[in-house]
Every structure is written in C-alpha cells, then in structure tokens.
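Quick question: what would this complex look like in 3D?
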Amino acid sequence: MKIVTNKAVFNRPLYLESGRLLESYEIMYETYGEMNADKSNIIIITHALTGSHHAAGFYEGDRKPGYWDALIGDGKAIDTLKYFVVATNNIGSCFGSTGPMSLDKNGKPYRFKFPILTISDIVKAQKSLWDKLGIGHVKAIVGGSMGGMQALCYAIEYPDFADIVIPLATTAYTRPWAIAFNKVTMEAIRNDPEFKDGYYDSKDIKENGLKGLAVGRMAGHISYLSSGSMNEKFGRKYVAQDGLYELFGRFEVESYLEYNGYNFPHNFDPLSYLYIIKTINIFDAARGSDKLEDVLGRIKSKLHLISFSGDMLFFPSEMEEIKIVMDKIGNSDKCTYDMIESDYGHDAFLVEVEKFEDKIIQMLEGKYE
Amino acid sequence: MKIVTNKAVFNRPLYLESGRLLESYEIMYETYGEMNADKSNIIIITHALTGSHHAAGFYEGDRKPGYWDALIGDGKAIDTLKYFVVATNNIGSCFGSTGPMSLDKNGKPYRFKFPILTISDIVKAQKSLWDKLGIGHVKAIVGGSMGGMQALCYAIEYPDFADIVIPLATTAYTRPWAIAFNKVTMEAIRNDPEFKDGYYDSKDIKENGLKGLAVGRMAGHISYLSSGSMNEKFGRKYVAQDGLYELFGRFEVESYLEYNGYNFPHNFDPLSYLYIIKTINIFDAARGSDKLEDVLGRIKSKLHLISFSGDMLFFPSEMEEIKIVMDKIGNSDKCTYDMIESDYGHDAFLVEVEKFEDKIIQMLEGKYE
C-alpha cells in the first residue's frame, strides 16, 4: 500500500460558525493507494476524538498501525488497491493540523485565543483541502463517532459532494449523557495545578503527563466500553501482586484504566482535548433549522447508518432516529440503517471490524439496500 | 412519627474478614415508631454509599428529610405507625459511626491505619448493635444499592435473623463496570494536592471542598442517572448566561454536575469515600465459596429482589442472576424477582418510590408471591 503523508498550508482565513475566523491554517493529511484517472475512486475517512490523519498502515519502526488499519488497506474492505483513500487530521487536533497550541501570527501559542470549532468548521476546512487537491467529488465518506458527525455533516451541507456517506456509532446531536462524560474530563483537567490554567509548557506535559487529563481519559474509557465487554475482558480478576484488603489494591480493570489513562497525556495535548470535546458537545446537525427533518431533507448522497447494540456512548436509538426521520420525509430509498449486534461498546466500530466489513464492501459497490 | 437518634459504643474488638480488627467502635443509629411487645414489628433499613442513619423524617430546621422519607413514615409503605424501623450509619462512613477519620487509641485519626471493611464486616457490626438492643430477630431488612448488598449479606450469613429481605438495585458481586466508575473517583481524589496524600485537615476540606472528590462525584452521578433521564431532565438546554462558543460555556447537565459535584465534599469525608467504594468494589456474596449456588442455598428468609430497567450501575441482569440461581437450586418459593420499568437510572430506588411501594407493602404483609 502506497502511503503519502503531507501538510497543506492555507494562507487565507477560514470563516467559522461562531463568527470568528482562523487567519491561516494547516492541515495534515495522508493518502493510501492511487487516484484513478477520472477521480472516481476517492474515499474520505473522518476521524474520532483522538484519531489523526494516520488511519492505516505502519510508519517505519512503529509497532502499531493507523487506527483503522483493520478496515483500510490492500485487499481489505476499504481496498486501497481499488480506492484512493484520504484522511486528514482535524483542525483543533494536535497531530500537525492547526490547533490551540499552534503559533498565532505573533509567534505564541493560541491557547484560549483559539476559536471554538464546530463539526461544520472542521468539514469546511477539509473542503478547502479537497479543492486544493482538485477533488470536487468523492465516491464515499466513512467515519465513526465524531468522524460520523463529520460524515453526516458532509451529507447535509455538501449534498452533491459524495455518492455514499457511511456514519458509524454516532448521533445527529450530542445528548447530555455524552456531555456529562466530557464534563468529568473538562473539570479534571481544569483542576489540575499542572494544567496551570492553560498556560502549561507543552514539553513538560509530554514528559510528565497530566494527571487531570489521565483521570478524564479514564472516564472516557468507561464510555467507550460496555458492562458486557468489561465483564469479558476483566471479570473480577485482581492484580496478582496487590492485596484484596489494601485500600489501593487493584482489580485488573483498574490497572487497565491506570495504564491507558496515565499514558495518554504523553501523547495528546490537553487544550486540544478540551477544544475537541467542546466541538463534540455542541454538535447538532439541526442547528440553524427548526428540526432534523429540514436538514436531513437536503441529503442527496446514499446514507448508510451503522450503530452497535452495545454502544454506551451514542446509543443505537440515536442513529435509528435519523433513519426514522429519513423515512418520515420520504427519503427511505436514500438511507439504510443497521444495528450490529455487539457487546463491545462504542469502540466496536474500531475493534470489531469483522462484524460489519462485508456491509461496507457492498455499500461501496452500491449494492447495499 | 417518633424519631430517636442515638449512638452505641462497643468497647470490644470487631474481628474483620481481612484478619484485622477494630479495637472498639461506635455506631450511630436512628429509630422510627415504636417496638411492639413481642418485637415482631422490627424493620432494618441499610444504607447506600453516601447515606446515613437518617433515613426518614426531618431534623429541626432542616429543609430536606432523611434519604428514604418517601418510603418510610406514618402511613407510608414502610408504615411507622405499624412498624418499628431502625437504621444505622455504617462503620467506615462519616456521620458519627467509626470511620477512617475517627480517633484511634492514641487520639489521632486512623487515616490509612483504618482497616478495609467488607459488607460482611459492616453487617457484623450492626448485628452487635441489635444484640445490645435486645433484637434477636426482625421482620424485614430493606436496602438499595450498597444497602442491598448488606440485605443480601444478612440473608446469606444470618439465615434465621429476618423473615423477609428486600434488596433493591444491587448485585451479588460488583462488576468491573461499577469498579471503573469508582476508579475515576479514587484517582481524582488521590491526585488532588489538597488531599495531601490523605493527611488533610478535615476542617479545611469541609470549608474549602476538595475538587478531586467533586470530580469523582460527578462521575458517580453519571452512573446514578441514565441517558434517558438526562434527556428528560436536561435535554440540550444551555445555561442562559453562557455562550455556546465559549470553551467553558455550559449545558445545563454540566451545571447540574458542577453544583452537585462541588457541593458534595463540604459534607462528606474523602477518606471515608475511598474506604466505602473499596468495600463496594470487593463485595462478592460468594466469596469463600466456590459459587453463588452454595451461598444462596443457605437463605431461609423470603427474598424479594427488585431491580430497575434503566439502572446503569447495577444492571437488572445482575439481580435476575440471583433469581435464576435461586430457582436452579430449588429455592423458587423463597424468592421473587421484579424489574420495575423505569428510565430514571440507578437512583430510581430513591426517587421513584411510587413505582414499587405497593409491592413493598405486600411483601411486608407476606402477601407477595
């Protein structure tokens, strides 16, 4: 698989939904495979909260591939022998695209001067990249979780852009349940003295971590799993060297959360995290309209919705609602809805690819009804 | 309703499951109504994580009554005109019973020298109180959540003690899902510099709060509610004076969590909280036996299990499992199981009393099959 990683620079402002603007911005992106002559084989991948432009394949020396390597690659469901796959790092994130710790025109990190971004803003920035790359139309857009919000946003706001849109494990508007999990993270970060009210030194955080972000990430991990998958993964197994009657003795699920929580801040910027969860919280596909009916009525792409029965973050009923509204407004022929049986939880869209890859293949071939 | 609040002092050791002992201990307790001549009208109430001996009625000047006032009182389901109701504050807690911030024999707070307690230890301490009060047998034991663990423990470990045992919204052994929520709290507390590694000044915490405990409590609140009840309670309502495009602008669910989270540490001791969640984490009704079958086989009381369909902390399937095992071992006649339809979440056992109070009345009258 041919992987190309690149950065695009935009020296003109991006006008944002909030009324503010980003004076200039950069977008990291990665491509897999080759674009065909008539540009009819392009698939866009949109990423979730902590994802990046690195969706598939291995970088030299890495032990772990891109986050959706199970789905994307030569001979895989999103077949890079056949399709030209492109993935960007969202603006606001911390993997090379412009975010809150990028330098402003005075050469200092934006920090709190960075504007709040919406899903629409992120997609708008991506659109300027597609323009630059001469991509005026794509075959498909595929994304899960926050990536699914972007996919949905493409379908609504750029109805002629994609033939096929496949949002997974997502929602049309973020509910208080998901916002509450994000709130725990937000408060945990803000309360950490090492966060220094946002005026931390990035190098310090990378080296020493940030306990507040770690604790918040642990709360996040609960929402990415499920009661069932935790039972299966950990049960009541206790860490062998810990005592059952020690106050800080640990069950294995605790050790898992510690490991994943405390490692995370070495690789992710806290302000980026705050900005991205804000973007998720305020996502509402129907904003600016009276109701979901109105915005879903604009869709021209074929919309394939995939939820997971055990998703404890964006519950299946939230995606089913989109299908119900599509049916109600006479768009049944443009929309399919599937709930994949899975006990894994929200992260099933990343982890249990084998359960839905056949559907993706058919969807991309235009054979799924 | 006649309310009597009292403290019992025990100047002999309590031998604990861990092999350690409490050299002496005190238990706060409260009674409602009058014990009848043949002591046949006694009902014990066992409390949840942050409950206390104050289960019902108003203290002078208080705006809020005891935590289960909807259920307990003159003419209510647990009718104090008819029954003599007794409630204790669990040892390990911070409302007058001996806990980690109580003074040891050297006149200093135990802090980490306080031993880990199990549900069995807490029940054992209560039993010594019943002995002191001349109560050798009771009509019923009723408790929800951690109180339900205690009720179940009474049924298993003291089979001749109660005619009727009614555990609500609980489990026979704590699953990793609940342990994970507690882990977030535990780490948030430990990481807070004001916790001072456990060597805080109680007065400071009461006055200033403890942000780590507040954040942990927010995570707890998520598990006490449900996606559905949050949708109903808050929807996507935004705090009027906050801006949608302000990083720390708040949805109402966030404001709710802030209010409840940050107020909490003014009224609850952090070390007590750590010790109690540890007790919950290590609860396993089958410990010491090979399987649940063995311990449930000891039960002689009539066991009425009540779960709530929307409970996101202890899922209905966890209580149903107890019923399934009871049936399997030929104890069907001793056990009923009801799942109350409720979208509220775990706290339904406190908040939606009207949905199950009729059942409780029948259960206490021995008329529920």
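Answer marked as accepted. Residues 178-279 of chain A form a domain with the Rna Polymerase Sigma Factor; Chain: A fold (CATH 1.10.1740.110).
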